[in-house]
């Protein structure tokens, strides 16, 4: 240990706790050198936790090179809070801060802090905070949520009039004397997600400090962590995050300072508590790791906290954007009385079917409904209830109905007339009239008008301007506005309209075909020449030459021709629903898409994807089983009604059934092992595409190790050889680039989605091994004996992937045995071999209940459902 030898009291102190995950110690220490503070003005106190063993030698070596002494200490604990408490005891400076060694200090940071506290030497000022910038993948950006408070420069804010929150201690300086006299310390009972905010809030409330310094010139560069990072994942994996944090953090602040009814303190608590509920709505959420055993205690504590905060604090909270469902849950989910709808909100208007959409919020049981349309009793044509579940409990519900459109519509809930408005923020009327519907219709129609259309009088002028600015081929454009002008002119050409007017566009990924988009296009192209059908794919795709040779009418994704096609299309249908598919062109330039979008799906949805899909708005949502339709189009977590959700079967089912029927038992010679992907196995997504960067740590993953163990199992390979079968390994396309990471025996056949047709492989399957892949449903469709390999079930549904466990229970509903080990897999496959590669009767009965028809007419039903969007009769859907 080295003690400070400075005479007098230093102005500033930095207490740094080392030992957290993802620390770049060298960068932090280098930033201390660049901070430009004269010796003696800043005291450095470094404390290493038990997790700092690998980095502590670097810290010690750096300290030895300093001209001024550095306090070095260790604690026998992994807790950064305990380390900070020890460091606080060792400081003597006037102001103390607790920066993180994951971050760096901006150039001249400490000098700027020193100048500010010297200029503002006021005892009523107890806390000063620096302007936090964020390091996003190596780029420093001004994107931190607190950035707005520094836009007016360095200043002193009064919390009574500007109730800002300070949720971190890393870029904050506290008056040390006040900390010591008030006995302030980091409460180790409070979870890591809130302990810093609790420390700062308790300090301010204890001493009555209401003036906070905002140092715009002092730049603190924080490393940005996403919810998928180990740091955030670990915080929300701790059970105490759902119990102790609320009890000793949120609730204790409100009860210990119940006489402090100021908005800033309420905001501190609400900011953190609302974060739990916000994350519950995320597609990949760290809160999905919460244990159901803690749910009851969490809800009891949350209810008490929200009761103390009161409705006004929740309603007026504006420090961050809250989804409507989250704010409704916070306001009404724990209220003593159920939420009764006070307004019905007008949504979309379907001019083809002459329907209007109305919705309202409620809690508990659904109110009794009655509707009068032009004086006559009416019933919803389509309806749903969307349940918003937070930590295992439905806190708020949204009712959505489609009613016949009339001149005057009245809504009665529990016998009370409920006013109808276009928005909760607009004054509603008691009756929904044509006059109130008209603005909504006009707004929708504006989407259907070509925003690039130009008048006949303007066309010659625009042609002249474009000609003056450019020369050469039509792909000369590099800037947005000339490109829009060129597209606008080309659309008006006779050639363009003859080719693309009223087009039906089909695609899978931009980079790949061989999915439902390809199968649907082939069916329409061959059987319905009256439809102006086109298929979209990147020209450099491996599938381009194959489809071109077959005669597909191909358009290169992203090309000038593709823009003309998309802008004139009546329909777009794809197996994927990412933004690059459904929002293909910049809306600021080309307007909103004007086509009907049909989601053909990539496979049968067997787990809860509502957090992802609810943000999408397909006009037609294709499903394959009655259970899937009930889950997505019925009451539950999904937004959709049976207006959008139609049971047709997947287009690729048709050819799959034909291929399977064409092979004899002897030709069904593969034991297919086909795992799906995991979000946490691939690298970050590549913007503007359906591709992901490569993950250099893939080989070290549990997934790679478990499947290597399975594929190299001598007992399973011998079983295959004895029964005349071959083992075929075919991982998900997103994992195809990792095939070289597996070292496999020569008798294991490695198949690639990029080369081998998945339907040909399934048709040859004698047995099928998967984990959570929707292709398990296609194996079930064909009654192929199936085994589920679930060695990572909890992790897969922990929230780090895109879905959570949904309506489908593998043990109860699956089409084969569920195993967790390679030994279990051998036993299951042995049983299948003993039955001559036939499924058990139990599983055959399950597939029969899952697939009402296997008639090879799925694509034709999809076509009928797409035509119904334009006014044709709705199709007759299969039933069990």
Shape: globular
Distance between the termini: 77 Å
| Helical/strand content category | alpha/beta
Q: How big is the Rg?
A: 31 Å
Describe the sheet with the most strands: 10 strands, mixed
**What percentage of amino acids are in beta strands?**
15-25%
Unreliable runs, pLDDT <50, ≥5 residues? 1-7, 448-459, 469-480
Record field, number of beta strands: 33
Alpha plus pi helix count: 33
Oligomer: single chain
Mean pLDDT: 89
Percent in helix: 25-40%
Care to describe what's here?
This protein is an alpha/beta fold and 880 residues long. Helix 14 packs across helix 15 (480-491). The radius of gyration is 31 Å and the shape is globular.
What keywords describe this structure?
about 900 residues, alpha/beta, ten-stranded mixed β-sheet, seven-stranded parallel β-sheet, 33 strands, disordered N terminus
